[in-house]
């Protein structure tokens, strides 16, 4: 008798399709298996390792990866941390359940405690980054002209960006801002030309990278230092956390805040740049010296430019005790790990 070797089941896993709100990639994730949930569960005891294990589990759960996402490294450079939240939502739906029972909430008016039974699909909204949404719309329009259903709101928004007249740069811009101004216009023109030529754009070989390339300069109100903000990718996050092997919670929180700052720039009174702080350790030192109000300004500006786009889960509820209206916002990552450790 030959020894029987069990090679495993041939299981068709449930899948969930989701579009990343920052970079606009449509991906299908399959439900996690027992081994993956166990791996995530064990990661929790070493908090510093959580993102590393989570990122790899998310990556391996993606089925039918697009050609441009050929390995973990390319995935980590085209998925922002906010996109990962959307993928986690998909993973949650594929692995656990749409219904969440007995979520404890507190009325903000009378402090009455209640338990809510929720449906995630009713709570979920996606706010796509506008430029990405436009890119996705155009790719669909020229990619499937026969099946295409025009959307009047989208068409109007696109025609606004296309009809940009020729003009001189505004007076009084610094050299750097003039370069940025010219770059922005070239981008706008290129987009417009693509549509006017009425030709199908080539099929996407790579991800819509507008949001990944974008930098936002913010002059801080008290220190007058310029913070250059960008959206952190999964790769940025790993680079920041990886250096600090024996990381403590305080430092980790600081580094997480710092991920949205690409660098600092220093200008003199003539608006000439006199220095830049680029190394991660130097950015950390500089960041800690900023007046607290400047830190809040950074977050406000980031939220305005990038932070409002993503997947969010909100539930409106009325208090049984005092009839006040309340809003409950669920953090998908927290809820995901609540189910992992259960
Ligand atoms: Zn109440």
Describe this structure in words.
Helices cover 45% and strands 19% of the residues. About 3% of the residues have low confidence. It is globular, with a radius of gyration of 23 Å. The protein is built from 14 helices and 12 strands. The chain folds into 3 domains: 96 residues; 78 residues, no CATH class; 95 residues, no CATH class. The chain binds zinc ion.
- Taken from the alpha-carbon principal axes, the silhouette is globular
Rg, alpha carbons: 23 Å
Average pLDDT: 86
- List the bound ligands: zinc ion
Q: What is the count of β-strands?
A: 12
Order of helices and strands: EEHHEHHEEHEHHHHEEHHEEHHEEH
| Tally of alpha and pi helices | 14
Would you identify the regions where 5 or more consecutive residues have pLDDT less than 50? 196-205
Structural class by SSE content = alpha+beta
The helix content is 40-55%
Distance between the termini: 43 Å
Number of domains: 3
**Fraction of residues in β-strands:** 15-25%
Give me the side-by-side strand order of the main sheet.
7-8-9-10
Largest sheet: 4 strands, antiparallel
């Amino acid at each position: 008798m030959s020894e029987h070797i069990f090679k495993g089941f041939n299981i068709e896993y449930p899948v969930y399709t989701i579009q990343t709100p920052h970079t606009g990639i449509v991906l299908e994730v399959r439900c996690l298996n027992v081994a993956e949930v166990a791996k995530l569960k064990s990661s929790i005891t070493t908090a510093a390792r959580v993102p590393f294990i989570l990122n790899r589990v998310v990556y391996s759960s993606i089925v039918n990866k697009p050609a441009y996402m050929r390995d973990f490294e390319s995935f980590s450079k085209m998925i922002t941390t906010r996109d990962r939240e959307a993928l986690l939502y998909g993973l949650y739906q594929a692995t656990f359940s749409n219904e969440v029972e007995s979520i404890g909430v507190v009325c903000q008016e009378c402090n009455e405690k209640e338990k809510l039974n929720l449906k995630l699909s009713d709570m979920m909204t996606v706010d796509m980054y506008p430029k990405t949404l436009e890119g996705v719309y155009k790719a669909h329009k020229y990619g499937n002209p026969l099946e295409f259903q025009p959307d009047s709101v989208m068409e109007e928004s696109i025609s606004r960006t296309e009809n940009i007249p020729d003009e001189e740069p505004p007076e009084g811009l610094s050299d750097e801002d003039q370069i940025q101004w010219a770059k922005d216009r070239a981008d706008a023109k290129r987009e417009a030309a693509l549509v006017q030529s009425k030709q199908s754009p080539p099929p996407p070989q790579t991800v819509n990278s507008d949001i990944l390339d974008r930098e936002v300069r913010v002059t801080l109100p008290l220190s007058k230092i310029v913070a250059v903000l960008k959206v952190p990718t999964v790769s940025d996050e790993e680079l920041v956390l990886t250096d600090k092997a024996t990381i403590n919670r305080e430092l980790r929180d600081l580094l997480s805040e710092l991920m949205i700052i690409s660098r600092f720039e220093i200008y003199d009174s003539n608006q000439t740049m006199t220095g830049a702080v680029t190394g991660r350790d130097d950015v950390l030192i500089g960041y800690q010296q900023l007046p607290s109000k400047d830190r809040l300004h950074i977050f406000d500006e980031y939220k305005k430019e990038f932070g409002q786009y993503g997947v969010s889960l909100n539930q409106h509820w009325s208090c049984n005790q005092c009839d006040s209206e309340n809003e409950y916002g669920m953090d998908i990552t927290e809820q995901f790990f609540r189910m992992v450790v259960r």
